[in-house]
Design goal:
This protein is an alpha/beta fold and 119 residues long. The protein is built from three helices and three strands. A three-stranded parallel sheet has the order 1-2-3, sandwiched between helices. The longest helix has 18 residues.
Length: 119
């Protein structure tokens, strides 16, 4: 994560970001929601988010309460490991892709507010 090493990055907002994706390959493949290709899963062990998170500050975590792909516990794990300042917002009833226009609009509004605060 570039924000852990680049001090020029003033603010970060993440939506539905997994802390780890080791079990993603076991998720059910759906026609309208394809999983990444096999090479993606082969590359995963080279990238670990957890050791980088304490070096990331000014981060807003946005996550859907009903995320079917990335469990809420992973968002809480990211949030707990981040440097400060930080905030977390769970969008009630929202799925992973924030398909409901109201959920997506809320995430956009929260993101814009966060960036205005730090820019």
């Amino acid at each position: 994560m570039k924000a852990s090493v680049d001090k020029e990055i003033k603010a970060v907002v993440i939506w539905a970001t997994p802390l780890h994706m080791d079990d993603l390959g076991s998720k059910k493949q759906e026609e309208d929601y394809p999983l990444p290709p096999e090479v993606f899963f082969e590359d995963l062990p080279k990238h670990r988010l957890l050791p980088l998170l304490p070096k990331v500050s000014n981060c807003l975590v946005i996550h859907g309460e009903k995320d079917e792909l990335v469990p809420v516990e992973q968002a809480l794990g990211i949030f707990g490991s981040l440097g400060i300042p930080k905030e977390i917002h769970m969008i009630g009833g929202a799925d992973h892709r924030l398909l409901d226009p109201a959920h997506r609009q809320r995430a956009i509004e929260l993101s814009v507010e966060w960036f205005k605060k730090y820019f």
